[in-house]
Amino acid sequence: MLLLAAVFVVARLTQSPVQPVAAAPTTVTATPTNQPDTRTPPTSTTEPAPETSETAGSAVPGDGSSVPKGSPVSLLDLPLTNNEWHVQHGDHDVQLTQYQNSLWTMLATCNSSAYRGEQQFRLKNFTRLEVKAVGTDSTASPDLAVKFEVFLNDDGVNAKQTVVVNPGETKTLAVDLPANVFAVKLRTSFTTPAGKPCRSGNAVWGSPFVVAAGR
């Protein structure tokens, strides 16, 4: 009986071979990793704020040989002729832009005492006068045109430099100074016809300075 049972089992195994079971396909999902971004982001360039003052007080007031060559010295640091101020001075605007260490005069076409303004400074050993901006301020009449003149030494007739600024304009000004210069006079006046209707406003020298000849 045991022999017959064994034969029967062997026969069953021979007749029904084990079918291989196909493995289910495996789906692999790639998970992105948070890798650091090594690309360099574009950088924005910001222009530096303009200097509001290019001045350096000299060791001896008015003497450009007492400071290093090329040093800018504000006109407000120079000695005054007869030690008298005839114009306003401080921080002021030229067409809404503020300038430090400025000079300005109120001009009016209907007031003969306000037809022009001027201020003289004493100096020596300077090579150049520069003004960052000349023009009228934000309170001036919109049709007021102004003339800016620079005179050297005691000559009040022949201007070394003249700049006419039309309403709403802003201009720069620069004058080379001769070696024998001992005084600089700044004068403002209007080119608009005098009389009424009255047009008025401040004529402004924005941050004027002289350049030292050096030690």
For the structure shown, list the relevant keywords:
1 helix; Glycosyl hydrolase family 98 putative carbohydrate-binding module domain-containing protein; 4-stranded antiparallel sheet; disordered N terminus; single chain; elongated; signal; mainly beta; 6-stranded antiparallel sheet; Jelly Rolls
Write up what this structure looks like:
The chain starts with a helix and ends with a strand. The protein contains one helix and ten strands, in the order αββββββββββ. It is mostly beta strands and 215 residues long. Residues 1-58 have low confidence and may be disordered. 7% of the residues lie in helices and 37% in strands. The longest helix has 14 residues, at 2-15. The protein has a domain at 64-212: NPCBM/NEW2 domain (Jelly Rolls, Sandwich), CATH 2.60.120.1060. A hairpin with an 8-residue loop joins strand 6 and strand 7 (161-165). The protein is elongated and about 50 Å long. The strands form two sheets. Strands 1, 2, 3, 5, 8 and 10 form a six-stranded antiparallel beta sheet that branches.
